[in-house]
Amino acid sequence: MEFNPNNNIVKLCLQGMNLEDADKTEEASGIFLQAWNEAANDFEKFLAAYYIARRQEDSSEKIKWLETALRLALGINDDAVKSALPNLYLNIAKYFEDSGDTENAQKNYELAESFKNTASDKGPFYHGTKADLQVGDFLTAGFRSNYNSEVIMNHIYFTAIINGAGLAAELAKGDGSARVYIIEPTGNFENDPNVTDKKFPGNPTRSYRTESPLKIIGEVTGWVRLTPEQLRQWREKLAKIEKAEIIN
User: Fold this and answer.
1) What is the pLDDT of residues 50-86, one digit of tens each?
2) How far apart, in whole angstroms, are the C-alpha atoms of residue 88 and residue 92?
3) Domain, as residue range, for 211
């Protein structure tokens, strides 16, 4: 299941988040409920339930929607959803702790910890860049961030979504052509904390990072290219990110 920003439910959730940012919380709640009512599959229902839970002030309603989101997530065999489990268990644990149910609180805290930083994605994996590389070459950390030129990155980043790597390639700094390489991690890797549980629950973009080199094992060309207008819009977003903190 590939995360698609053009999906109608994803767009509704984004709309709801924008309303939250504008302090229009009641309108945001209505949009999230609309997303739930229009959801056509378990992944879409999971997303909607997550945001509905976030807007609940009544504790019994909050736990109902959190447990609904958890039930749906556990029934979806997808790495993009599994990455949301630690946060879901953590929120459920806090509910039980606030309710004085220490046994269930501890149980859910332990479950949250057991799923933390356990990326189970088997790939294939991709890295987007403007560098001209060959099969057998290695990509390493230690270069300047594409999103904040003052930051030297301690990790090298990659994704299991080919179009995500294509986007990174087109936005990468440099004068070369955008390239998407098939890569093989040579060491342990973790969910990218810069995107995990930020806007969407878990790591739906299947973005990862590692301190170990990435070995290039091939190159792909069949990815969706940005239009000039889309590229301009993304560069404007990056200009704002420059001022934000990057988890390095």
Assistant:
1) 999 999 999 999 999 999 999 999 999 887 788 899 9
2) 6
3) 125-241
